Amino acid sequence: MGCRSFAAGILFLTTGAAFAAPPPIEAYAALPGAQSLQLSPDGDRLAMISAYKGKPVLVVRRIDGQGTPAVIDTGKTVPDWFLWKNDATLLASVRFTVSHPLVDIIEETRLVMLSPDGKESVPVKINREGPMGAVVIGDVGNRTPQIQDHIVSLLPEDPDHLLMDVTPKEDFVHPDLVRVDVHSGHPAVIQHSMPGIDEWFTNDQGQILAARKTTHETTFGKDVHRQLLVRPNPDAEWQVLSEADVDKGHRLDIAGIVGNTLYVTSDGQGGRLVARAYDLGAMQWGEVVAADQRCDVVPLHYQRHLNGFALPCVGTGFTYLDPAWQKDYLLVVKALKAQHVSIEGRSADGKRTLVSVLQTNNAPRSFWLIDRRGEKTELKWIGDSYHDIADEQIAPSKWLTYPARDGKQVPALLTLPVGYSSGVIPFVVMPHGGPTGHDVLAFDWRVQFLASRGYGVLQPQYRGSSGYGLAWQEAGYQQWGGLMQDDVTDGTRWLIGQGMAEAGKIAMVGHEYGGYAALMGVIKEPALYACAAAYDPMTDLNLMVQHQKHYAFHDLNAPHVASQGQSLDAASPVENADKIQVPVLLVHGEQDYVVPKEHSERMERAMKRKGKQVEAIYLEGGDYSLRNGNDRLAWLTALDKLLAANLPRPVQQ
Fold first, then answer.
1. Fewer CB within 10 Å: N-end or C-end of the chain?
2. What's the confidence (pLDDT) of residue 137?
3. Does residue 455 register a pLDDT over 90?
4. Measured between alpha carbons, how far is 570 from 89 in angstroms, rounded to an integer?
5. Are 399 and 412 a contacting pair, CB within 8 Å?
6. What is the structure's pLDDT at 248?
7. Smallest Cα–Cα separation from 582: which of 627, 632, 531, 535?
8. Strands 456-460 and 427-429
9. Which element (helix H / strand E) includes 633?
10. pLDDT digit string (tens) for 157-180?
């Protein structure tokens, strides 16, 4: 992969010379040269999100390399995803932040129809009150819907329309279902909102055959009761497929409708999510489609259409519902002997299939084309997502488990520098965000940067993480600064016990909840860690809980931060700044709508009042997801400086 690349959407070859030293920091901070590739229905063009001057843009180019690629800059908005509606129309979701009197900043989305050359654009005209970014506060009758990009169905048999759901002006939560003209952007309501219904599900013909009904404690409260409703046809009465209190262990969600079959993910034996079929014609349960005792199943979608399921713990654990897709998947797995293969799209005639490949589980993606238009079937390389990092410079990662203090086995990802054989090296412990979330074995620019500088990296999947069954996730409820933190600490002590790390020569690093855990780590275990770095961390749990009350949907762990009446001060880093004995780096994006920068500002002030060593960097255009290459570079540069000053200099292998 080191000699192939995308650059601003243009395919080219580099010299492929061997790297004598680790790649520069810019190689890891750079946005991927190509991501989210989409094959046009005619199979002749690729659309992708690419990097241009450090920011993501849409690029459309011909597969044969002829002509000049179209680079579509979305201005002050950020392209999030896009789809081909037909050969003449691309659908692009863009995101942007705006000021809001209740929560300081919110993120809004819009859907725009684009010509492939980018010369024509038509926004969906849901927002009638003003231009993109306009916000009307006060009169709820003039409210601008925040989310305006949720496609329910592309209506593949209708070239002129698609289905979206959007909340009406008088309701913040329960959406109308609208049919949108892709030429004019004008919507027409085909199903008005109904009490409690927060999501509609249709088949490819646009018939509404399933819905999710949720009863909230308050308008902005946590989900307390959920029903999944189904019917065999649009004229039939709704029937309850499933109902339970969400916060009492119920997991059954609709993945999609294919033909006359509804697919769901639900708790199976062993507490893992499995994929199961439900026959809408007979109104009865069918077979289990995908399952594994080690991890939760994940639905796969193409063009907003369910097309299969994946098992992240199984390298070749993809099950596609279309036999032709499954055949192509197995063909590439066999031909390239790759550890991870994913079908990204197929031309309308079925003669061209776009595939993404990971040769090893944590390598950057490469893209390939199965081409059946000639006399023989060919598998052609298209390009790579990163080109400045050679194959041999990718540090190996592996799954393992370590014992927690109560005997439970905690899953974790361990990454060691290239060439490491044995002995103590400086380490970074990096808990994931969420906390309801989990790491995956894939290319991670942060982890690979750290490993390239000689640091080992441990990523604990502490209790509270998703992906390991409901019991594991619920074990983290009301455990902020408690059991979840102990699991991270036990992972650090396990590294020391294995002879890979040494107390006082380890750093804690994290983003969002991971940043919170990094700060709590140096508060609770000052002898273990040499420093801590946090990007967009929660530091004041009272502030976080107050902020969450303004949102209708959020991480289910958030309502479970503490039991009723329990003080949050003991688990808030900002209230425990006096206990920190090591240098701390705080980096916060000023446009973060999830964790307001006030968290870092309060932490910075608290540490300075106590005479503690802290550096705070506020990124003017920085967002929650580090979607800008310049922000990634700022984060890695500051982190590199902190680690170099406080950890032993790694020995380059």
1. C
2. 36
3. yes
4. 54
5. yes
6. 63
7. 531
8. parallel
9. helix 629-646
10. 999 999 999 888 777 788 999 999
Dihedral sign, Cα of residue 450, residue 630, residue 358, residue 291 = positive
Return the amino acid letter for 282.
A
Distance CA 335, CA 369 (A): 13
Task: Please tell me the predicted confidence (pLDDT) of residue 17.
Answer: 31
- CA torsion sign for 488, 491, 497, 503 is negative
Tell me if 622 sits within 8 A of 633, measured CB to CB: no
Full-model pTM? 0.83
Cβ atoms of residues 58 and 36 within 8 Å: no
Between CA 529 and CA 518 the distance in angstroms is 10
Are 539 and 573 contacting, i.e. CB atoms less than 8 angstroms apart? Answer: yes
pLDDT in tens, 76-123: 888 888 999 999 999 999 888 776 655 567 778 899 999 999 999 999
Instruction: Kindly state the average pLDDT of the residues 268-274.
Output: 84
* H-state helical runs in 456-597: 470-474, 483-497, 513-524, 541-548
Cis peptide upstream of residue 234 (ω within 30 degrees of 0):
no
Q: E strands along 176-219, which residues? A: 176-181, 187-191, 197-202, 208-216
DSSP SS3 for 459:
strand
Spell out the domain ranges in the chain: 74-190, 395-646
Among residues 238, 138, 151, the alpha carbon closest in space to that of 194 is found at: 238
Tokens (6 digits) for 438: 């989990």
Which of 92-106, 321-335, 447-461, 487-501 bottoms out in mean pLDDT, i.e. has the lowest?
92-106
pLDDT interval class at 182 (50, 70, 90):
very high
Average pLDDT, rounded, for the chain = 87
508 strand-pairing partners: 429, 532
Q: Distance (Å, rounded) from C-alpha 463 to C-alpha 484?
A: 5
Report the C-alpha gap between 69 and 87 in whole angstroms.
16
